User: Fold these one by one.
Assistant:
Number 1:
Amino acid sequence: MTFRASILTLYPDMFPGPLGHSLAGRALEDGKWSLDVTNIRDFAADKHKTVDDTPAGGGAGMVLRCDVLAAALDSVADGRPMLAMTPRGRPLTQAKVRDLAAGEGAIILCGRFEGFDERIFEARPIEPVSIGDYVLSGGEVAAMVTLDACIRLQGGVMGAASSGEDESFETGLLEYPHYTRPQEWEGRTIPEVLRSGDHAKIAAWRKARAIEDTRSRRPDLWEAHGEPPVQSPSGARLKNEEN
Ligand code: SAH
């Protein structure tokens, strides 16, 4: 099954953009995911191709019209999840990405200006999604972020060995830090334990660093997940360790 992405945007030329390069780009060429891009403006009904209007109640900026958005959405709707990029949405998480990535694909609506007429969320089953607590100028980059996260989880996109299960957020922790050659650089050396060849010691060090960095950098994550159960190399649960 190929992950199918449909983008609705006022700036179709922005795609595939970064998704045409590296892992995602190669996977697109190899048919491991597909992309179609629809220009919302093609669904404007008047001769001036109007897609927006002034906000009801007054205020700055312009609002995307719900009738135009609905016509554009309806042209691609086929049962895949429909997402709208908005800072008012639920935050995108790795769990949500896993969920989306396991499905048939996604239809993603990109906003511009002040955003969407709210009635579009009442009239169509659209999930509002935010990529973080900051405001972008448009939803296209947010859609690319969402797709990139889904694409790298598709079968055969990453190397066979790295299923991504070790990575940040998958266990409720940030990943441990990485090092590579040179062994000494500007007077700094790679932590000795990583050169010891002792796999149990290395795993324990990595676990401790993952915990330490999560606690200090992301107290919100630490509080939400608490300390995850310690896994033995065989996957059996051991008792929680205190560090
Ligand atoms: N007036 C809106 C911001 C509009 S920004 C508000 O204050 O909530 C213009 C468009 O950029 C939005 O419609 C949305 O599609 C996109 N956008 C901006 N920030 C975003 C974020 N954090 N996550 C996802 N999309 C975002």
Number 2:
Amino acid sequence: MNSWFTELQTKDMALSCRVTEILHREKTPYQELAVYNTVPFGRMLVLDDIIQTTMVDEFVYHEMIVHVGLNTHPAPRRVLVIGGGDGGTIREVVKHQEVERAALVEIDGRVIEAARKFLPEISSGLTDPRVEIIVDDGISYVEKNKNTYEMIIIDSTDPIGAATGLFEAAFYRNVAEALTEDGLFVAQTESPFFNRDLIRRAYREVAEIFPLTRLYLANIPSYPGGLWTFTLGSKRHDPLKINKPVLASLNTKYYSLEVHKAAFTLPPFVAALTK
Ligand code: AG3
């Protein structure tokens, strides 16, 4: 097979990779879903022609969206993941023994099914008995659940279509209310090269609602520009003041206590987005 998959990362820039096999393709009620096997990234999950996660670099994203926040909170018992139907975020959440209940609220049940079938290494955590899977709209779910979670993780697609509401002030306010009094949240907030306005606006809105707001970075080569941001909003605990050890049982490949701290060291052009 000699075909290529191309993601138009911005309207003027593309990432192409050689596909060895089309494992799955379907039109769900929400989007076009595909799983390809590729030479550079191995199996990859693609939604509406946008790369969501790949076997080669998924660990960076999933470890960093989860462990920074969970290691910051002294006793995270209930965790909510919005989006993340592939299960990679949940897989990292359930590595924390103190987590008693982890809810996954994914709007498109087909993403969960495709991940179970074609990405078992990523979706493995979905079978953990502490996990509750809810196929629903995350925006209305957080509105209905108040004062419940120590941590909320927003593992969304890019801010286009249905996901735009996950990057808005009204949603962040509902997230704050769904958190317990010392809760915190982390959202993936795109590229500091190509989504500066979005990052700046999200940061400002979170900072208006949460006493503590921090931006941090990780390297994810299959995403536009490779360098990626996460925005953390916290009611009490500061990710820069953690003194929890990193449990060996987390078994991480990117996250460590040093990386946790280093991730908040922002190059000036990124720090400028927080001012
Ligand atoms: N969420 C998607 C991150 C955005 C990727 N953007 C892009 N390739 N243009 C990842 C979900 C993984 N659980």
